C-alpha cells in the first residue's frame, strides 16, 4: 500500500509539473517571438520617422532658401533690367545668377542642380534640357503661382523630350525637383519695389538625384526589406524595385495607407507575414512605406530562443523529479497519522491528539487537526445550550406578537364603552389610534401606497388636533398621479410632528400646515410647509448633517438614501419667525 501510494503521488507530480512546463515553454517561446516582433516593429517605425525627419530637414532648407530669393536685391536687379536679345548681357547675367544661387544651395550636398528657367535662357548649372519651359515641371510651377511645388521622380529624357539620351547611362537619368515661380521684389527703406510688368518671371528649379532617397532606405533596414515612396497621386518617387519608379501604384493596401499620415501594421503580402511602417513627409507630402518580412527580423533569434526554452525545460524537469521523490515520502507519513486519528474521532473519541514535531505545512496541518478536534468537543457541549436559548427566544417572540393583539382588543373594548356612553369624540380618537397602531406594527416595513400614508396622517392630525385644541389647520394639494406610486412608510410623520411640537409651541391658534405633492420630469416632489416660529440656519445644518435629537428625520433621510440613492433626499429651508419648508425628492419610478 505504501509503495503504491507513493508511486501515485510521484506520477501525479510528474504529470502536474510536465504539463505546465510544456505549456509555459510554448508560451515563453511565442511570447519571446512576439516581444521580438514588437520591438523590431517599433525600431523599424522609428527609423522610418527619423529618415523622414532627416530628409525633411534637408528639403526644408530648400523651402526657406527659395523664399529668401524673393527679396534678393541682385536677382531683382538682373531680371528687372535684363535684355533677352543681348547675348553678352545674358552670359554675364548667368554668371551673376549662378553665383547668387550657389550661395543659397551649394551647402546642401543632396542638391544636384539649381537653375532659373526662362523662355529665352536657362540660368545656373547647365543640363541638356532643351527648352525646359515646355516641361510639365515648369507648368506645375506656373500653376502654383509662387508656392513651392515638389515634383516627384521623373525620367529626364522623357520630361525634356531629349530622345537621343534614352538608353544611355546618365547619372541624372531620374531626378526629382522642387520648383517655384519667382516674382522678385525689393524692399527699400519705405516701399516695396516689384519687377516691371513686361519682365518675364523665371521659375526656380532645384533638382535632386534619386540617390538622395535611396541611400537613406537601402542602408537603414534589414536585408530583405522593401521600400516605396509615393506622392499624393500614387506616383512612385523612389522604390527598392527600380521598375516601379515614375509609375503609378494603386494597390489597395497602399490606398489604405494614403488615407493616414503615419503608423505601423502587420499584414500578409504574397502570402508572407510582413511588418509595414509608414510616415508622411511634412515638407513634400510624400508617404514613405517600408515593409520587412517577419522572418527576416526574427530568424537570427529563433534558434537562441528555442535552445534556451528547451534547456530551461530540461533543467526544471530534472529538478521537479528530485523534489517530487522527496515530497512523496514527506506526504505519506503525516497522512497515515491523520487517517489513524480520524478513525478514532469517527468512533466518538474527541480526546484524540496527534503528535507532531515539525513546523512545516504538515506540522501546521496536524496542529490544526488537534485544535479542530478540541473545538468539535466544545461545540458538541455548547450545542445543547444553544438549542435551549433558541427555544426561549421563540417563546419571547410569540409573546411579543401577542402584545399588539392585546392592545387592539383593549382599544376595541374602550371604543364600545365610549359608544355606549355616547362619547363620540373619544370613540373616533380610539378608532384613529387603533388604525395608527395597526399601520405602524405591520411586520413588512417596505414601501406603501401614498393613499395609505395620507390615511395614517389624517388619523394622526385628528388626534393631535384634539390634543392641542385646534391650534393648527392642515391643507393638502397633491397631484392625483402621485397616488399611483409608493413611498417609504411614515415619510411625512417626523416633519409634521416637528412642526406641531416645535413650530407651534409659542402660538395658541392660527397655525397652518400645507402638504403639497407634484411631479417634475422623472422626479416626485413633496413639500411640508408651516407658518411656525422657524429655525436658524445652524439648527437646520445640525438636523441634516450633524448629531442632533431629530432621530426620526435622520432615519427618514437614511432610508431614502438607502432605497433610492444619494441623489435623492431632503432639503430644509427656514428662518426664525418665517416658518419652515421641507422638500422631499423621490424618483418617479422606483
UniProtKB/TrEMBL annotation:
<feature type="transmembrane region" description="Helical">
    <location>
        <begin position="310"/>
        <end position="328"/>
    </location>
</feature>
<keyword id="KW-0418">Kinase</keyword>
<dbReference type="InterPro" id="IPR036890">
    <property type="entry name" value="HATPase_C_sf"/>
</dbReference>
<keyword id="KW-0597">Phosphoprotein</keyword>
<dbReference type="InterPro" id="IPR003594">
    <property type="entry name" value="HATPase_dom"/>
</dbReference>
<dbReference type="InterPro" id="IPR010559">
    <property type="entry name" value="Sig_transdc_His_kin_internal"/>
</dbReference>
<dbReference type="Pfam" id="PF02518">
    <property type="entry name" value="HATPase_c"/>
</dbReference>
<dbReference type="Pfam" id="PF00672">
    <property type="entry name" value="HAMP"/>
</dbReference>
<dbReference type="Pfam" id="PF06580">
    <property type="entry name" value="His_kinase"/>
</dbReference>
<keyword id="KW-1133">Transmembrane helix</keyword>
<feature type="domain" description="HAMP">
    <location>
        <begin position="329"/>
        <end position="381"/>
    </location>
</feature>
<keyword id="KW-0808">Transferase</keyword>
<keyword id="KW-0812">Transmembrane</keyword>
<keyword id="KW-0472">Membrane</keyword>
<dbReference type="InterPro" id="IPR003660">
    <property type="entry name" value="HAMP_dom"/>
</dbReference>
<dbReference type="InterPro" id="IPR050640">
    <property type="entry name" value="Bact_2-comp_sensor_kinase"/>
</dbReference>
<dbReference type="GO" id="GO:0005886">
    <property type="term" value="C:plasma membrane"/>
</dbReference>
<protein>
    <submittedName>
        <fullName>Sensor with HAMP domain protein</fullName>
    </submittedName>
</protein>
<dbReference type="GO" id="GO:0000155">
    <property type="term" value="F:phosphorelay sensor kinase activity"/>
</dbReference>
<feature type="transmembrane region" description="Helical">
    <location>
        <begin position="9"/>
        <end position="29"/>
    </location>
</feature>
<keyword id="KW-1003">Cell membrane</keyword>
